[in-house]
Design goal:
binds 5-S-methyl-1-O-phosphono-5-thio-D-ribulose, amino-acid biosynthesis, EC 5.3.1.23, disordered N terminus, IF-2B-related, methionine biosynthesis
């Protein structure tokens, strides 16, 4: 079986799929050396995969969380509706606690939970939770293709586009958001080259973005994070497109650490900085004070593989995300079109139109 045969809707890498009461996913900790599939039989195993970044990227963990609930449902031995609902609530909390910043995780869980009241029996709940999780995974691909097309109109033939972290097939079910735009440009027949930043310390740029673009034969060059300003100053970048983990109604964008620096440098060199994200990444309720920025382990910074690259005893800060303020964002590419400033007004208008 190749990865793609399981998902006839996508010709690209498929990161996660439902398979005979189990969840299969690419183990992203093994990339780029090995393209290995893990099978999760319980929601606890899936929660562990999210925590240790075997699956990561906001839309992918949203779908993974929904599939976690589906695993909980199908494995349940409950004989009453109240009992299976209790089990699902416990799974909801375990899955929600895996990572704090990407809002898609909660969105995936809430989307499944909203439906539960409709069903009477344990069997109905099992069947429908699985069906809804599979539907979410299929919709993710369709949404990425739509936003990819909108974003493609922003790109001129021959453009060089920089991206940070991985907002590709590997960060979604397939196709990607920022890299979905790149794929759509290529499908339209325009020439495009990508500059990927390494994205220290977890290296999503070199391990994942470079991997999937090389895999799909899309022109890509890899640079150290520290080279962004130099390339921009030397007019080697036409546009920047990144993904997002959470976007507030004000247009504040939470994304991989380093995104803010890239946005500031883009502004100072007059390079348009775009964000590509589905509407499931928007959090219209919270303010910046309420969002938790995930702090990850110090070993991500002190070691490269098994080799120590910092002295024992040094203090480490390792925030996994940062916030890019709206004045640095030229536009937000969604499946409903591109949102331009002023964001407060135009984000609301997109949601009012749904
Ligand atoms: O820590 P990660 O790898 O989950 O962080 C991922 C990112 O920051 C991505 O840019 C974001 O989730 C957008 S994915 C379409």
């Amino acid at each position: 079986m190749t990865l793609d045969q399981k998902n006839p809707r996508s010709n690209y890498l498929t990161t996660i799929f439902w398979d005979n009461d189990s969840v299969k996913l690419i183990d992203q900790t093994k990339l780029p050396e090995k393209l290995e599939i893990i099978t999760c039989l319980t929601y606890q195993e899936l929660a562990h995969c999210i925590k240790r970044l075997a699956i990561r990227g906001a839309p992918a963990i949203g779908v993974a969380a929904a599939m976690g609930l589906a695993l909980c449902a199908v494995k349940s031995k409950a004989t009453s509706k109240s009992r299976i609902l209790e089990e699902l609530k416990s799974a909801y909390h375990t899955l929600l606690e895996t990572r704090p910043t990407a809002v898609n995780l909660k969105w995936g869980l809430d989307t499944i939970f909203r439906e539960l009241d409709k069903y009477e029996t344990v069997e109905e709940i099992k069947k429908n939770v699985v069906a809804s999780a599979i539907k979410l995974s299929q919709e993710d691909i369709a949404i990425n293709k739509k936003l990819g097309k909108f974003g493609s109109d922003l790109i001129k033939d021959g453009d060089v586009v920089m991206t940070h972290c991985n907002a590709g097939a590997l960060a979604t079910v397939s196709y990607g958001t920022a890299l979905g735009v790149i794929r759509s440009v290529k499908e339209s027949g325009k020439k495009i080259s990508v500059i990927a930043t390494e994205t220290r310390p977890v290296m999503q740029g070199s391990r994942l973005t470079a991997f999937e673009l090389v895999h799909d034969e899309i022109d890509v060059s890899l640079i150290p994070d520290t080279a962004v300003g130099h390339l921009m100053a030397n007019k080697m970048i036409d546009k920047v497109i990144v993904g997002a983990d959470r976007i507030l109604r004000t247009g504040h964008v939470y994304n991989k650490i380093g995104t803010y620096q890239v946005a500031l440098l883009s502004k100072s060199h007059g390079i348009p900085f775009y964000v590509a994200a589905p509407l499931s990444t928007f959090d219209l309720k919270s303010s910046t004070e309420e969002i938790t920025i995930e702090e990850r382990s110090v070993e991500e910074v002190t070691k490269i593989g098994d080799k120590r690259v910092a002295p024992a005893g040094v203090r480490i800060f390792n925030p996994a995300f940062d916030v890019t303020p709206p004045d640095l964002v030229a536009g937000i590419i969604t499946e409903k079109g591109i949102i331009y400033p002023p964001y407060e007004k135009n984000v609301q208008a997109i949601f009012d139109g749904i």
